[in-house]
């Protein structure tokens, strides 16, 4: 992949890792820890990543062990790449276990440096909230989870956190990270589990310096916008929803991917979906070595 242009913040956007503390398979079929390892290994050659984000459902069971796994695997990848690491709870996460290991979700700061946190006790009814600065961008995490429920909601304390964080513009704008995306759901099940008050989010975002909202939850990549702000939904690490099927049915396929999101100095945004190839299923259709690719580029590109 190309190196990002100077001044660009490259974000590796992962979502829905659904890690288990005891190694249990997700939905009885997928070893999510192995899937995460394989995906990170595949992404190891992506250059210039400044921030790694996991937009919720980090854990399947809410256990501290599952959060230790993500702290170690994604934390090590981010440190090695000199990238910050930020995450936020989803509906499968449990705030107590999340906070015990990941505190407010802002795990590593700019350059992959560990962030120093004072451990505060919060009741699990209090949403996890955080913000940090990466390459002049303010990264704000908002907890849309509702304890014991699958749907999402922005509570008044979560909205107030967002309002306060966005009150003054940042040098190069802001990025909002949340789990339940403020976009329509592709299936009946996901419709029942969607964010219930996207209009409240729109009211807070309107007129702010937010350049993009990063979400997950649907285990399928799609893009939209809210209040004129782009919304990107990352594919799931755990599996890939087949949204083309009947509206009232739910099908997920074995498959893992991520987004590589580039946020340029002037606020322009590009997102590149990356899929982990499956050697058992994916046959190579084309491979050009560097010499062959250069020959074709010289023949058919501009003189
Ligand atoms: Fe979810």
Automatic annotation (TrEMBL):
Family affiliation: Belongs to the cyclic nucleotide phosphodiesterase class-III family.
SUPFAM superfamilies according to UniProt: Metallo-dependent phosphatases (SSF56300)
Keywords: Hydrolase, Iron, Metal-binding
PANTHER family: CYCLIC NUCLEOTIDE PHOSPHODIESTERASE CBUA0032-RELATED, PHOSPHOHYDROLASE
A Pfam entry, by short name: Metallophos
Residue ranges of every copy of the Calcineurin-like phosphoesterase domain listed in the record: 9-220
Protein name, entry field: Metallophosphoesterase
Domain of life according to the entry: Bacteria
């Amino acid at each position: 992949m190309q190196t990002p242009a100077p001044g660009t913040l490259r974000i590796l956007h992962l979502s829905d890792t659904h890690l288990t503390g005891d190694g249990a398979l997700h939905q009885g079929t997928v070893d999510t820890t192995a899937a995460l390892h394989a995906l990170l290994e595949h992404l190891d050659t992506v250059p210039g990543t400044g921030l790694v984000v996991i937009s919720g459902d980090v854990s399947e069971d809410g256990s501290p062990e599952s959060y230790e796994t993500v702290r170690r695997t994604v934390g090590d990848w981010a440190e090695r790449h000199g990238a910050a690491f930020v995450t936020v709870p989803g509906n499968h996460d449990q705030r107590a276990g999340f906070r015990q290991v990941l505190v407010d979700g802002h795990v590593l700061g700019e350059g992959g440096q560990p962030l120093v946190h004072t451990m505060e006790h919060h009741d699990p009814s209090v949403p996890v909230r955080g913000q940090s600065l990466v390459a002049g961008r303010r990264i704000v995490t908002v907890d849309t989870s509702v304890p014991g429920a699958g749907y999402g909601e922005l509570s008044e304390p979560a909205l107030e956190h967002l309002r306060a964080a966005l009150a003054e513009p940042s040098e190069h704008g802001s990025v909002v990270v949340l789990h339940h995306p403020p976009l329509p759901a592709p299936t009946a099940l996901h419709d029942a589990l969607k964010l219930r008050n996207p209009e409240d989010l729109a009211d807070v975002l309107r007129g702010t310096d937010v350049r993009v909202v990063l979400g997950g939850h649907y285990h399928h990549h799609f893009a939209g916008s809210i209040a004129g702000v782009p919304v990107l939904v990352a594919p799931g690490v755990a599996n890939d929803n087949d949204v083309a099927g009947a509206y009232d049915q739910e099908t997920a396929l074995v498959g893992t991917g991520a987004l590589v999101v580039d946020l340029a100095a002037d606020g322009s945004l590009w997102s590149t979906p990356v899929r982990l190839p499956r050697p058992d299923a994916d046959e190579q259709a084309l491979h050009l070595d560097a010499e062959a690719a250069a020959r074709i580029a010289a023949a058919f590109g501009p003189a």
